[in-house]
Amino acid sequence: MKKLIVLLCLLLPTAVMAQKAPETQPSQGAQTSSANDPAERNKMLYSLGFLLGDNLKRQLVLDNEDDYKAVSQGMRDNLLGKKSQTDIEQYKPQILQKYQDDARIISQRRETEQKEYLADFQKEKGVKVLDNGAMIKLSRPGKGKTPKADGTATVHYTGTLIDGTKFDSSRDRNQPFTTRLADVIPCWTKALQQMKPGARAQVVCPADTAYGSRPVGPIPPNSVLVFDIEVTDVK
């Protein structure tokens, strides 16, 4: 029973919870006005439902329109306080089994997709494979000296998963990121040593050069990460 409760709690939109609060917030008056506007409230709730659906899709294999209708009807009946159309206790073991089976399927699909992505990127013109397996493709060479392994670099970057889902961006914050090369993921440590001030590159990090099997915020475990990095300063 506890396992089932934990799995069902995962339906919470974790991607939303993991996001940082914006740098600036609307005024209290603007927030109140928006909350009292029925049209805006509906848009907010629709957005919440969309994110819940996205999170559900990441955990379960739903193959067709009938699957979607059955799940949405169950959620609707619960939210409206209606009596369940099924014997919930009877189906709890099957629900738990589906989560376990679908987790394996989704993991296998992601692994295949990521292997294909890495293989395809490696074939692109100008890609350099580094000694730890990370890959870099310079779009602008830059000038000056490259940082050493114990050096410091200031960069602007955008990080995405291979499907384009953005999980972090210094550009969105309008704040460059300064770091010691020894303090970042191994992929960055190697890639930044290939970049001079002014350089810009696409850097692809296999999971074992990034966060490995650890989930980090909206980043699932064993994820290939893609970064658009621009170096502004080196020390």
Overview of the molecule:
The chain is of the alpha+beta class and 235 residues long. It has two domains: 113 residues, no CATH class; 108 residues, Chitinase A, domain 3. Helix content is 45%, strand content 18%. It has eight helices and seven strands; from the N terminus they run ααααααββββαβαββ. Strands 1, 2, 3, 4, 5, 6 and 7 form a seven-stranded antiparallel beta sheet that branches. It is elongated and about 70 Å long. The termini are far apart. The N terminus is likely disordered.
In short:
The protein has 235 residues and is of the alpha+beta class. It has helices at 2-9, 14-18, 28-36, 38-59, 65-79, 88-123, 170-173, 186-192; strands spanning 127-129, 135-140, 152-161, 166-169, 177-180, 200-205, 225-234.
Descriptive terms for the model:
Chitinase A, domain 3, 45% helix, seven-stranded antiparallel beta sheet, 8 helices, alpha+beta
- Main sheet characteristics: 7 strands, antiparallel
Overall domain count: 2
Global mean pLDDT: 86
Radius of gyration from the alpha-carbon trace, in angstroms: 22 Å
What is the number of helices?
8
* Unreliable stretches: 1-27
Q: How many beta-strand runs?
A: 7
Order of helices and strands: HHHHHHEEEEHEHEE
* Quaternary state of the chains: single chain
- Which structural class do you get from the secondary structure elements? alpha+beta
Termini distance? 55 Å
User: How would you describe the shape?
Assistant: elongated
Level of helix content? 40-55%
What share of the residues does DSSP label as strand, in percent? 15-25%
